[in-house]
Design goal:
heterodimer, A: 122 residues, six-stranded mixed sheet, 12 strands, B: 113 residues, 11 strands, 50% strand
């Protein structure tokens, strides 16, 4: 079974500065997907960024980027130019790629880390 | 765009009462999921439905039942609520294709007294 660990229960950053949230995972699979979700106080689960394990290039989405280290099984999220609206709980999640087509066995189930609460100071 | 709709948003039950949480999606997704979120534990999978007519247990299925009523709807039932089931419940859906992410509802906060 896969496990996902977020070792930072809380992090804080000054507005306009950069912060990195850590995530490690354990799997014996070679093909999988990794995700970062943001959960603001409204409780919505918002997809921030995704990474396919077969891609060596790190994913980026505007101010959000990841550092994907497959051998180390590490998937950190970097938030640049932090804004007050970035304050939220952030979850790292793993999904097997074994269900990319009908007939796979994992059916897109996500395994989540424990979450990191990010505070942004003005 | 409604996406994934969960009802109700909040509910308080007494121990032993039963309740069904409703979930509907309008994106024509094949797979649907129920998660619970507890402090310090992230989201954990309760049950999932890979396609209409099928359901399977996830990581924490005890005390719950599910029904995939049709392609749109996936309900979660607590037959005899216990205080340990106090949690925030999320429904999600997803299409089969490749790296498509799960789309989540806004959650139901359930308190069992």
């Amino acid at each position: 079974a896969q496990t996902v660990t977020q070792s930072q229960p809380e992090m804080s950053v000054q507005e306009a500065e950069t912060v990195t949230l850590s995530c490690t995972y354990d799997t014996s699979e070679s093909d999988y997907y990794l995700f970062w979700y943001k959960q603001p106080p409204s409780r919505q689960m918002i997809l921030v960024i995704r990474q396919e394990a077969y891609k060596q290039q790190n994913a980026t989405e505007n101010r959000f980027s990841v550092n994907f280290q497959k051998a180390a099984k590490s998937f950190s999220l970097k938030i640049s130019d932090s804004q007050l609206g970035d304050a939220a709980m952030y979850f790292c999640a793993y999904r097997s790629a074994g269900d990319s087509h009908a007939g796979g066995t994992s059916y897109g189930k996500l395994t989540f880390g424990q979450g990191t609460i990010l505070t942004v100071h003005p | 765009n409604a996406g994934v709709t969960q009802t109700p948003k909040f509910q308080v039950l007494k121990t032993g009462q039963s309740m069904t949480l409703q979930c509907a999606q309008d994106m024509n997704h094949n797979s649907m999921y129920w998660y619970r979120q507890d402090p310090g534990m992230g989201l954990r999978l309760i049950y999932y439905s890979a396609s209409e007519g099928t359901t399977d247990k996830g990581e924490v299925p005890n005390g719950y039942n599910v029904s995939r009523l049709n392609k749109r709807e996936f309900s979660l039932r607590l037959e005899s609520a216990a205080p340990s089931q106090t949690s925030v419940y999320f429904c999600a859906s997803r299409d089969y294709l490749g790296n498509q992410p799960q789309h989540f509802g806004d959650g139901t906060r359930l308190s069992i007294l």
